[in-house]
Write a structure and sequence with these properties.
heterodimer; A: alpha+beta; Immunoglobulin-like; five-stranded mixed β-sheet; B: mainly alpha; Cytochrome C Oxidase, Chain A; two-stranded antiparallel sheet; 15 helices; binds protoporphyrin IX containing FE; binds copper (II) ion
């Protein structure tokens, strides 16, 4: 009775898991960046682990059904089979290599941003995001965490390069199809830059600059979330990302006041 | 062996007073029960806290007493309680204490007084932990990972003053207790095995606990050191982990610390910690499967080697929790490779469990059902770990509900199943009475099906991108309405599963009080603890003569044997 029941539950578990996955109701949000390779990695991993999941649970279901104690049944005595053990280890190792091999290649790409990328700085603090764009000189001015006492973004306003930088606290505007390097800073505690549609994610750590890169491939508005617990309003530390055509982006950027105009010396 | 000889003839001085017998007892069995009951009581606090969190997630805004601050406090206390004060304490302090001396055939631990001290110090750590609810500001809400700067900077997170200090103090005390216990378990296994009990004749339960104790001795110091520095950063304004920061408009005079350093220290402890929890559970489950399937464990040697391999590799994978922490990105390659290599010994264990069951004669009683449940939840928990270990696949999933689903199934539910299975299995020996089998089965079914219904959908939520440690998801447009329905569903099941644990409590209390008298060896098991002269075993366990071991612990269904089991104490000739 228990054996049959457990077998049924395990089979239902497998069917449920497969149906849920196939239905796509709980799947990744539509990709909006270049990181299709990450999605592929998730799919490869899902296939390999999915096969193992289905096979192992079905074997377990078969065992509890077939070998549940019944009158006159006696267990077989065997305690070792080195060939079988070795083969199982080989199959497992193979599955792991199939996942890890390509995974490391994609990771290598992930940590090597392209040369021509647009560098934007993102600053996290309890509990909001700020963004800084290089101005016409294409360079971001110097910052120092000690300068947070003087201005909200810790920027060195005596640095000539900083004068034409643009700081906004509102949505993060990004040009379509241009690689973006996000330089992350934090003013206070840990935060994490996370846009589900871009797949990429990276912590912001006070005292240092971290970075990640991606290329937006879809216009539209996306949620920027904080993915590292940062205190009471962590769940509300949100902003928007607006991906628009390069022309629209340029027009928007030109219209923003520069640091020289907004921050007093 | 003069030592063993003196042990055999030694009179066992049974203490007579109530206090020395049941309260300040040095008997490993009493200490085991004290550990177990205390851990279960704290565990229920942890369970209750999970209800509060689930109420908020399922019905946001309906329960006004839950706010963003205390949500995080409940979450932190829940996580810490479950991992450290329930699972670690019950598996090492409870099962370790009960099983080691009985299974290796000795009268008690190597250092009985230290053993007693270990329990009482554990109790102090529990009191300190729970006291945090009553100090100004309440317990810390920095997450069980305690990451600075937020955990210690004033106003940076709830409980960032007294809450965190009390928790660190409690953990330090726990480490002291765990060290006393760990030294005891390791020494006892190495020194006090009875005649014939070679290392390779030890039941896998003992192997799991033994190796986990070694892990605890090596891993806890990292937590201790990290905790001390964190405490200094909190109390005296030092800057071990705090760089120049500006919190809520205030420039703090800190400089030179590095938050990531703490993460390394924490996970250097934290990753082995999950093996401290799972290795004993694996050992227990191995023994349960073999006994109730009436079949020898498959590949005993491979099982022992995998336990050791998991433990050893477990010390060089810690930074897989930090792939997007901002640490040197090249670390990712190494920690991903090391992490997925661990999958091999873990997979070996799973295959060997299935092969142990293959062509067995499965008695599907309560302990066996929980052991089988463990195998199933460990499969899904372990496989989902391959997503998180494969560095690039971790990037989108890190800190989402996928992680919550993963660690709950692989460490939470699996370990709990091992514990439930073990408690039901050894209850007749420890108490001398039987529980209700029907209630036990009911408890299994609700818990098994419920756990899947609670935690499986979380993988989907993680794929959708739901971040963990969120008080509410209101206002995030990209999350479809399905999230809301799913969270209501999960909450309802969680409430039911939580309530079903009362069945377990009732069953054990009722069984201990009114249950049918248990036979000495109700499962017809081979290991030594079932061959004691009386049930429950007396102080000193074995009466006048220590048992002598003649065979490995898995002689089930030997072809020409008259019975389907041969106890370890039966000599070759019979
Ligand atoms: C029915 C049983 C349980 C339920 C319903 C439950 C529910 C939860 C919930 C809702 C959270 C917070 C999720 C978030 O906001 O990110 C959580 C966190 C956690 N739980 Fe459980 N839990 C259960 C059992 C366990 C067990 C047995 C363990 C033992 C390992 C455990 C360990 C943890 C840990 C380590 C955390 C993370 C805390 C943190 O993020 O700092 N839970 N659980
Ligand atoms: Cu946050
Ligand atoms: Cu880990």
């Amino acid at each position: 009775m228990q054996g049959i029941l457990l077998a049924i539950v395990l089979v239902l578990l497998v069917i449920g898991a497969v149906v849920l996955t196939m239905s796509g109701a709980l799947w990744l949000p539509t990709l909006a960046s270049n990181w299709g390779a990450i999605d592929n990695m998730l799919v490869i991993t899902l296939i390999v682990t999915g096969i193992a999941f289905v096979v192992l649970n079905l074997i377990l279901a078969y065992i509890v059904f077939r070998y549940r104690a019944r009158d006159g049944q006696k267990a077989a005595f065997f305690a070792e089979n080195h060939r079988l053990e070795r083969n199982l280890i080989l199959v497992t190792a193979l599955g792991i290599i199939v996942m890890l091999g390509p995974g490391l290649f994609v990771y290598s790409e992930f940590i090597h941003p392209p040369q021509n990328a647009l560098v934007i700085e993102v600053l996290g603090q309890q509990w909001r995001w700020s963004f800084r764009y290089p101005g016409t000189d294409g360079k971001l001015g110097r910052t120092d965490p000690k300068l947070f006492a003087q201005n909200a973004v810790g920027i060195d306003i005596t640095d000539p390069v900083a004068q034409d930088d643009v700081v906004v606290h509102g949505p993060l505007h990004l040009p379509l199809n241009r690689p973006i390097i996000i330089k992350l800073r934090s003013k206070d505690v840990l935060h994490s830059f996370y846009v589900p549609e871009f797949r990429a994610k990276m912590d912001a750590v006070p005292g240092m600059v971290t970075r990640l890169w991606f290329t937006p491939t879809k216009t539209g508005t996306f949620d920027l979330l904080c993915a590292e617990l940062c205190g009471t309003a962590h769940f509300q530390m949100r902003s928007k990302v607006i991906v628009e055509s390069p022309e629209e982006f340029e027009r928007w950027l030109q219209a923003q006041p520069t640091v020289a105009q907004t921050i007093k010396k | 062996m003069p030592h063993a000889a003196s042990h055999t003839t030694e009179e066992h001085h049974e203490p007579t007073g109530f206090w020395s017998r049941y309260i300040f007892s040095q008997d490993h069995k009493v200490i085991a029960i004290q550990y177990t009951i205390t851990a279960l009581v704290v565990g229920f606090v942890g369970l209750f806290l999970s209800w509060l969190m689930r109420l908020q997630l399922g019905f946001p805004g309906e329960f006004n007493f839950i706010n963003p601050n205390n949500y995080l406090q409940f979450m932190t206390q829940h996580g810490m309680i479950m991992v450290v004060y329930l699972l670690t304490a019950i598996l090492l302090g409870g099962f370790g204490n009960y099983l080691i001396p009985l299974m290796i055939g000795t009268r008690d631990m190597a250092f009985p007084f230290l053993n007693m001290l270990s329990y009482w110090i554990y109790l102090v750590s529990v009191i300190l932990l729970l006291a945090a609810f009553f100090v100004p500001g309440g317990p810390t809400g920095a997450g069980w990972t305690l990451y600075p700067p937020q955990s210690v900077l004033p106003n940076a997170s709830p409980g960032a003053d007294w809450g965190i200090r009390l928790l660190i103090l409690s953990l330090a005390v726990f480490v002291a207790s765990g060290t006393m216990g760990g030294l005891n378990y390791v020494t006892t296994v190495l020194q006090l095995r009875t005649r014939g009990m070679t290392l390779m004749r030890m039941p896998l339960s003992v192997w799991g606990i033994f190796i986990a104790s070694i892990l605890a001795l090596l891993a806890f110091p990292a937590l201790f050191v990290g905790g001390v520095m964190l405490l200094l950063d909190s109390l005296f304004g030092t800057s071990f982990f705090i760089p120049v920061v500006n919190v809520l408009g205030q420039q703090l005079g800190r400089e030179g610390g590095n938050p990531i350093l703490f993460q390394h220290l924490f996970w250097y402890f934290g990753h082995p910690e999950v093996y401290i929890v799972i290795l004993p559970a694996m050992g227990i489950v191995s023994d349960l499967l073999s006994t109730h399937a009436r079949k020898p464990i498959f590949g005993y040697k491979a099982m022992v080697i995998s336990i050791a391999a998991i433990a050893a590799i477990g010390f060089i994978v810690w930074a897989h929790h930090m792939f997007v922490s901002g640490m040197n990105p090249y670390f990712g390659f190494w920690f991903a490779i090391a992490t997925v290599i661990i999958a091999i010994p873990s997979a070996v264990k799973t295959y060997n469990w299935l092969l142990t069951l293959w062509k067995g004669n499965l008695h599907l009683n309560t302990p066996m059902l929980f052991a089988l449940g463990f195998v199933s939840t460990f499969i899904i928990g372990g496989l989902t770990g391959l997503f998180l270990g494969n560095v690039i696949a971790d990037v989108p999933l890190h800190d989402t509900y996928f992680v919550t689903g993963h660690f709950h199934l692989v460490m939470g539910v699996s370990a709990i199943f091992g514990i439930f299975g073990g408690l039901y299995h050894w209850f007749p020996k420890a108490v001398g009475r039987m529980y209700s089998e029907a209630l036990g089965k009911l408890h299994f079914w609700v818990t098994f099906v419920g756990s899947y219904l609670i935690f499986f959908p979380m993988f989907g939520e993680g794929f959708l991108g739901l971040p963990r440690r969120y008080f509410s998801f209101k206002g995030i447009e990209s999350f479809s309405p399905i999230i809301h329905d799913l969270n209501v569903f999960i909450t309802i099941v969680a409430l039911a599963v939580g309530a079903a644990q009362l069945l377990f409590v009732f069953n054990l209390i009722w069984g201990a009080w009114k249950g049918r008298k248990a036979e000495a060896n109700p499962w017809r098991a081979t290991t030594l603890e079932w061959q004691t002269p009386t049930t429950p075993p007396p102080h000193g366990n074995w009466g006048a003569q220590l048992p002598v071991v003649h065979r490995w612990p898995y002689d089930y269904s030997l072809p020409d044997a008259p019975q389907d089991y041969i106890p370890q104490t039966t000599s070759q000739r019979s």
